[in-house]
Design brief:
alpha/beta, Rossmann fold, six-stranded mixed beta sheet
C-alpha cells in the first residue's frame, strides 16, 4: 500500500522534480532532480542565491507552475497533471500566499482584500471563519484600517493585510515569497513573527522563500539550494550560521563546484 503524504506528515512534497526553461543550447535547468517535503505545522525557509531555483521550487510546489518532469503533491493530493481549474480550486481552498509585492487589489479596501478568498469561492465566511478573520484583524492591528485602500496604507500595513488574507480561510499550507523584501527592518520582523506564530500557535505549515539570513533565522528548518539542487537541510539556524554556510557554498562554487552533502559537509 502506498504511504500517503498525510501519513508521512507532509503538507507538500515534490519527487524527482526537474524544471527546464528554454530549448536546445539555450535551455536552463532551474531545478535538477529535487526531492523534498514541507512538514506539517513547521515554518520552513527555502534559501539560496539568485538563480538557485528557490522561487521556481515554490511556484511548482504551489501549483503556480508546471514541472518539466517529476511529481508534486499538496497534502495527499497529487497535483501533477491537474487542469488549471482543478489547480485553481485546490489553491483557493487549501493554500495561502504572501508575496513580496503584497498583490492587493487596489480598488478594494483592506477588509475587501482580506475577504477576497471567500468572494472568489462564491460564498460568505461561516461563523467560525468570520471569528478567525476577526481574530486576525485584532492580532494584526488592522481594526482602524479596514476601510483604507492599499495606497492609503504603509508597506507594513499592506503586508499585514496580505497575511490576514492568506490565513483567512485557515489553509493548511502558506507559501511566502520574499515577504519582507519591500519592508523596513521593523515591519519585516513583525511579519516574520506573525508567520512564525501561524505555525507555532495554529499548526499551519509555512514555506518561505528568502535570500535574507535574518529572515530565515525565524524558521524551524532551513533548506539551502544551489544550482537547482538541495545542498543542505538544517534545523533552526542563527543568522550568523546561515550567512557562514551561504558564504561557504559560494566559495565552493567558485572553486569549481565542490559538492556539498545534504548535511552541508563537502563530499
Amino acid at each position: 500500500m502506498e504511504i500517503t503524504t498525510t501519513e508521512l506528515g507532509l503538507a507538500a512534497r515534490v519527487q524527482h522534480l526537474t524544471k527546464t526553461f528554454g530549448l536546445g543550447d539555450s535551455a536552463v535547468r532551474a531545478l535538477d532532480d529535487v526531492t523534498v517535503g514541507i512538514r506539517r505545522g513547521e515554518f520552513t525557509a527555502i534559501m539560496g542565491p539568485s538563480g538557485s531555483g528557490k522561487s521556481t521550487l515554490m511556484h511548482v510546489m504551489a501549483g503556480l507552475d508546471a514541472a518539466t518532469s517529476g511529481r508534486t503533491w499538496i497534502g495527499d493530493t497529487e497535483i501533477t497533471g491537474l487542469s488549471d481549474l482543478e489547480l485553481t480550486l485546490l489553491r483557493r481552498r487549501r493554500v495561502g500566499f504572501v508575496f513580496q509585492g503584497f498583490n492587493l487589489v487596489p480598488t478594494l479596501d483592506a477588509i475587501g482584500n482580506i475577504l477576497l478568498p471567500f468572494d472568489l469561492d462564491g460564498r460568505r465566511p461561516s461563523a467560525v471563519e468570520r471569528a478567525r478573520v476577526d481574530g486576525l484583524i485584532e492580532t494584526l492591528g488592522l481594526g482602524a484600517r479596514l476601510g483604507h485602500r492599499p495606497h492609503e496604507l504603509s508597506g507594513g500595513q499592506q503586508q499585514r493585510v496580505a497575511i490576514a488574507r492568506a490565513l483567512a480561510t485557515g489553509p493548511d499550507l502558506v507559501f511566502a515569497d520574499e515577504p519582507t523584501g519591500n519592508l523596513d527592518s521593523r515591519s519585516g520582523r513583525e511579519v516574520l513573527s506573525l508567520l512564525a506564530s501561524a505555525s507555532r500557535d495554529r499548526g499551519q505549515s509555512i514555506a518561505m522563500v528568502t535570500h535574507d539570513p535574518g529572515a530565515a533565522a525565524h524558521a524551524d528548518r532551513v533548506i539551502f539550494l544551489a544550482d537547482g539542487r538541495i545542498v543542505a537541510d538544517k534545523p533552526r539556524q542563527s543568522a550568523e550560521e546561515i550567512s557562514a554556510f551561504m558564504l561557504d557554498t559560494e566559495i565552493a562554487a567558485a572553486l569549481g563546484g565542490t559538492a556539498l552533502g545534504s548535511d552541508g559537509v563537502r563530499a
